Structure formats: C-alpha cells, structure tokens
Amino acid sequence: xxxxxxxxxxxxFFGVWDKYRNKQPLEGAETLALIVILDHxxxxxxxxxxxxxxxxxxxxxxxxxxxxxxxxxxLALAEQVSIDQPPGIRDLLEQLSNKLGERMAAEHAAxxxxxxxxxxxxxxxxxxxxxxxxxxxxxxxxx
Length: 143
Hints:
The chain is an all-alpha fold. Helix content is 66%, strand content 0%.
C-alpha cells in the first residue's frame, strides 16, 4: 500500500495545480486529482501558495478543515469508484447521488463514511471493514 508522508501529499496537490495553471501535461493520478481540485475552488488559493501552506497545521478542534486531507479523501473515493473496489461502491455512490440529487453531496457523505471506517480500523487495530463502510453508506439510502 502506498503511504505518502504529509509533505508528499501536499507537494502532490501543489504540483498538480501548478501543472494545470502552466498548461503542462498531467500523469496518472494527477488527472483524477485535478478533477477533485477543480470541484473545490475554495482550495485554489491554498494551492497557489505552497510556501504559506506546506507546513500549516489544521486543527479540527478549532473548526478547521484540512484541505489536503479533504482532497485526498475525494481522490481515494474516485479511485475506489474507478475500479469498483470494494465491490459495489460504484453502485452505492450512484444510488446516493440519485437520492441526494447531486454527486458532490453524495461524495461528501461517502467520505464521512470512509473516514469513520478508517478511524474504527485504526482505533481497533484491525483491517479496513468494507461492511462497516457500506452499512454507513446505506443509512443514507431509502428503504
């Protein structure tokens, strides 16, 4: 499993944004990352200022959202959907999108479920539990 450092993740997003702004070609996961970035204009200013934001800490107890974590979660979800792994995630996200009326709302709900599943696995020292993930997603679906 690929496990980049905080600095590597941030450099990745800064690099994607810089390539996009300078009309340079993107490679591999950079293409998916750009889609995620373009869907979040509220973070463009952060990505345009790597010197200011490379080392910044974001404290949830102060109500702060870490833009790099948020973008990373969207990227993880996009990768899951692209390969339908865990099996059925693509259909569940589509059903959630239809119920909520927009893809971004469904993605944010799915990201909340993904974060909960990761937190539970870390807390309990266990493997990721796709059942817990899907159970959480299904709570947002009718019937």
